[in-house]
Design a protein that fits this description.
The protein is mostly helical. It has two domains: about 90 residues, Rna Polymerase Sigma Factor, Chain: A; about 90 residues, Orthogonal Bundle (Arc Repressor Mutant, subunit A). Helix content is about 80%, strand content about 0%.
Amino acid sequence: MNETSDAYLFSLIKDPASKDKGFLQLMDTYKKPLYWHIRRLVVSHEDAEDILQETFINVYRFAGSFKGESRVYTWLYRIATNECTKHFRKNKNWLKNAELITDKMFGDISGHDTENSEVILIKFQQAIMRLPEKQRIVFNLRYYDELSYEEIGQILDSSVNTLKTNYHYASEKIRQYLIEHA
């Protein structure tokens, strides 16, 4: 995710003659990291695919409004995160569905000879899914995507101190969940 290539891609996207070519290259570059960012938030592959598609539709529609004041991936993550937030608000039962998915995964794994690390990984994911929305988003962006608090602040339009607090509380809740379910 090179800033030079991002600038080049947006120069293509802003030119009507090469908009589609630039957009397809942008999709190729960011499709996988955005998918996994979304997937960690919504768990379901089908929901992640739908949200990713909606994210890229919005990117295509609003590419002309990108002013380059932030990095491209920050702008893309913000759009994807906003789409996830819309999904959470629209689908109030998403947590129940996420619990069913993790319960099924746990049942599948515990029914076979597996390593303890897989069970811990599922418990870790269950703990993340039980976090409040903002804490879950901040935790995922920091832990999995390894973004700085400044970058997360641009994505979520929050102060660094608020994000650090959210991350700290999320980490503590995850730790407590893992202790209680050991």
